[in-house]
Design goal:
50 residues, alpha+beta, four-stranded antiparallel beta sheet
């Protein structure tokens, strides 16, 4: 699980918008890119986004 404090400071690396956690993925609220969470660590790389 990701710490809510960490989630509050994360931003989408592509469009810099806020993100939220859904179904073990970090999802951008603006562009909709989905970033994986591996072993509890968000992988916030544009190349890894869906």
């Amino acid at each position: 699980m990701i710490d809510p404090k960490l989630l509050a400071i994360l931003a989408c690396p592509s469009c810099k918008a806020d993100v939220e956690l859904k179904n073990e993925k970090i999802i951008c609220k603006k562009c909709g890119k989905k970033y994986p969470v591996r072993q509890g660590i968000p992988v916030m790389l544009v190349d890894e986004a869906e």
